Amino acid sequence: MKILVTGGFGYIGAHFINRLKEHEILVVENFCQGRNNVIEGIQYKEVDIRNKEKLLEVFREFRPDIVVHYAALANVPDSVANPAKYYDTNIIGSLNVLECMREVGCKKIIFSSTAAVYGQSDELINEDHPKNPTSPYGHSKLMFEQILKDYHRAYGISSVSFRYFCASGCDEGGKIGCYHDPETQAIPNLVKTLLGKQEIFNVWGGDFPTPDGTGVRDYIHVNDLADAHILAIKKLEENGCFDYNLGINKGFSVMELIKEAERVTGKKLNYKMSPRRAGDPATIIASSMKAQKELRWTPKYTDIGEIILTDYNFFKTQ
Ligand SMILES: NC(=O)c1ccc[n+]([C@@H]2O[C@H](COP(=O)([O-])OP(=O)(O)OC[C@H]3O[C@@H](n4cnc5c(N)ncnc54)[C@H](O)[C@@H]3O)[C@@H](O)[C@H]2O)c1
């Protein structure tokens, strides 16, 4: 099968490709975040998805059977300050991807959506939960999910939208990891501080309505995300427009992450409390039962200490 992967050398895309060697893969990247030396032997084109003309040339030449669409801007606080950038890439760029698919008759797409489409909730969030994004980033992803529904009805393009909760961890081989710059996620910043690669770890917000006042998130390992995408390729043998949450159905506060990271590494973390960041909700925890039932997907990494160690082992080598 010919699979075109946008943003395939970013954090989550690279882990997917690493587990998917038997297919013919073409990565489309502008390298604003991704690195082109993470996985050897993968063909790629340096193209920005906002450049429709160049993108179409790539689609015409490669003629994919399926698109896995990771390329996006994904920094929540930055999206609050600079919404135009986010709508440009996440909506206009993504529409270009769909239009190129129409042009070459490609009828299947797997889309990286996000838990940020839901906003704050104290309950486990299933797919029917009200959508209430708290940032332009979340809005951009929700809008594109709607566009996918419209493209299915009008043009017969089938899709799986995955709403990832907090992507975390790195491949256990220690060779592929997280390359975000700047990094906004808790675990990579935490382990970089433990390793002495940055001076202090910021706990963004100690006054959330949570048991210890810090934000609570559901951390899902990137290799589990990758496995869900592989199962989605099979799911798309059916015609339809599907959405699934991907998380471990359990939340951890930032203070709990710190405790666990100190326990598994035997090191003491230098941290400070800082004000909340714009767009960050207090608590988001998944119910992923739909993906578990319909895709037969089971997350293998459910021990937060083990997840943190995979990050720690990767950043040790950087
Ligand atoms: N990391 C998370 O916790 C998380 C959670 C929910 C959803 N997501 C979504 O998952 C996807 C991948 O996230 P990630 O963490 O791997 O991010 P990432 O930044 O590491 O990967 C995105 C990749 O897309 C590329 N890219 C960005 N804009 C592009 C453009 N205009 N043209 C071509 N390539 C472009 C970047 O160079 C990068 O390699 C994104 O769509 C993101 O919104 C991520």
Automatic annotation (TrEMBL):
Catalyzed reaction equations: UDP-alpha-D-glucose = UDP-alpha-D-galactose
Enzyme class, UniProt record, top EC level: isomerase
InterPro entries according to UniProt: Epimerase_deHydtase (IPR001509), NAD(P)-bd_dom_sf (IPR036291), UDP_G4E (IPR005886)
Named cofactor requirement(s): NAD(+)
Domain NAD-dependent epimerase/dehydratase: 3-247
GO MF: UDP-glucose 4-epimerase activity
One record GO biological process: galactose metabolic process
The EC number(s) this enzyme carries: 5.1.3.2
Keywords assigned by UniProt, alphabetized: Carbohydrate metabolism, Isomerase, NAD
Family the entry assigns: Belongs to the NAD(P)-dependent epimerase/dehydratase family.
Protein name: UDP-glucose 4-epimerase
Species in which this protein is naturally found: Candidatus Nomurabacteria bacterium RIFCSPLOWO2_01_FULL_42_17
